[in-house]
Input
Amino acid sequence: VTPQSPGEVALVGPEGVTILTDFGRDLREVSPVTLPRELTATSPDGYPVHGWVLTPEGPGPHPVILMIHGGPHSQYTGSFFDEFQAMTGAGYAVVACNPRGSAGYGRDHGRALIGRFGDVDAADVMAFLEAALAAHPDLDRDRMGIMGGSYGGYLTAWIIGHDHRWRGAIVERGYLDPASFIGSSDIGWYYPDCYNGTTREQLEAQSAMRWAEQVTTPTLVIHAEQDLRAPMTQGLEYHARLTRAGVDTELLIFPGENHELSRSGTPWHRRQRLETILDFWSRHLA
Output
């Protein structure tokens, strides 16, 4: 994978990497590829936060979407990512980083989030957003949205429960309540035990669900019917609690799909998902 192509064949030898193909050429001819620009921010405690900013063609100010990856031990890279390209192609700037808990920066970086969900990760993400706004004057700080899936759905829900600057939010297949994951998720009991703790107090303190009634941001909740990793009840309860709190809320459930919908779901559902996301942003960020 390169910044300009979803995937090529390369030869790795003593003199480095030689790319042998150009499968992405047809795609580039139809739709220009937005190249990511690296940025390193500083969290409030002095910790460095690395990530990328992608801006669409044309003059700003561009509406901004803060995108948060799952895992949390996953990572964004500077390679081609279809979701980033879909957002920039529709006119939105994308801000994406690898807060503490992400892969790719060593063991300590990955383990720094244990017992601290909603703490250092939220601080890192928000510090990176502020640094991106300062470094790129063509980003519109008055038109910002936030979205993420799985753990990214968790951190999105946590942030909108504490910060109300957003025009909209998308919470997808979220890990929203650690306590109710135990015995219901196919990932096993170890996940909340390892990441959040084993006592009720620890789990409650790191639950995004308990902040649902504090949300004021219009929110789209997306889930899949056969999601066994983040069971559908997580999304249903979160949507219901937002609705009862008077939040402008929408719910989209995909039948026959699981936790991998956005990556390996049926082509028509993957397209419908992206079209729904773009429609939501067009109504809230335009």
The chain has a mean pLDDT of 95. DSSP finds eleven helices and ten strands in the chain.
